[in-house]
Design a protein that fits this description.
The chain is an alpha/beta fold. The chain has a single domain (7-186, 224-250), classed as Rossmann fold, CATH 3.40.50. 47% of the residues lie in helices and 15% in strands. The protein has helices spanning 16-27, 41-49, 64-77, 102-129, 151-171, 189-202, 206-215, 225-236, and strands spanning 7-11, 31-36, 53-58, 83-86, 133-138, 176-183, 247-250. A seven-stranded parallel β-sheet has the order 3-2-1-4-5-6-7, with helices on both faces. Strand 1, helix 1 (16-27) and strand 2 (31-36) form a beta-alpha-beta unit. The two termini are 28 Å apart.
């Protein structure tokens, strides 16, 4: 189904999964607002290269005032938002919980969890006034399991699924569906950084970590960013019209529940 006439916001869209999601939505006709603390010009150029429309708006999701300023800019450009994809997030640090500095713990939750809350709080009213919309939160396979050395990140993603279900119940009466996607390790620069952190923390080589993470999935490989983008596209479309409060795994079969 086409997304022509739809306005979509994707946070954390300057690179990685976020850029692929923005491109996928643009290819199906959505007008994109690319939100990121980093320069989103490359994503805007990529969207325009496939014939789509996009603008970049800077947004630090961890700061309330920055999110409010971002929302004000959104309102200057449009009187409605149809799609919101909360993809902005950070990796955190590879530390045991017993060695976790409070500042590092709070920083990860501030970006990954509180940042999503702030964006939804400021943008959802534009969906409500327009008669409804679709929200997708990008969680993780570790929202379904524990993972040593990543306690802050794991906690933020488990909590994100709880917030997804709560928002689904709170917003359903306004015609807004809220779902999540839980990717496994996704190919790209970010996962290389994460694997390097784990290799150092666990006393293994990067090659060993990559091999282990690939082989633990039934498909014996990492996930491609376009595969995540395709599931997000499904969740924001009419094809998923009876779904809200759900979290879809994109893990190569590693997580099945």
């Amino acid at each position: 189904m086409t997304l022509l006439g739809k306005t979509a916001i994707v946070t954390g869209a300057a690179a990685g999964i976020g850029r692929h999601i923005a491109l996928r939505l643009a290819q199906d006709g959505a007008q994109l607002l690319v939100a990121d603390i980093q320069d989103g010009a490359a994503t805007v150029d990529a969207v325009r290269a496939v014939g789509g429309q996009a603008d970049y708006l800077k947004c630090d999701v961890s700061e309330e005032s920055a999110v409010q300023a971002f929302a004000a800019q959104v309102r200057e450009r449009t009187d409605h938002v149809d799609i919101l994809v909360n993809n902005a997030g950070i990796n955190g640090e590879a530390r045991l919980i017993l060695d976790m500095p409070l500042a590092a713990w709070e920083r990860t939750l501030r970006v990954n969890l509180t940042g999503t809350m702030l964006v939804v709080r400021e943008i959802a009213p534009l969906m409500i006034s327009g008669g409804g919309g679709r929200i997708v939160n990008v969680a993780s396979n570790v929202a379904r399991r524990g993972l040593p050395f990543r306690g802050d990140y794991v906690a933020s993603k488990w909590a994100l699924l709880g917030m997804t279900q709560t928002l689904a119940l709170e917003l359903v009466g306004h015609g807004i569906r809220v779902n999540a996607v839980c990717p496994g390790p996704v190919e790209g620069d970010r996962i290389e950084q994460v694997m390097e952190m784990h290799a150092l923390a666990e006393g293994r080589t990067l090659a060993d970590v990559r091999r282990a993470w690939s082989e633990e999935t039934p498909m014996k490989r990492l996930i491609e960013p376009d595969e995540v983008a395709a599931v997000v596209r499904f969740l924001v479309g009419d094809e998923s019209s009876a779904m809200t409060g759900q979290a879809l795994n994109v893990t190569g079969g590693f997580i099945m529940t």
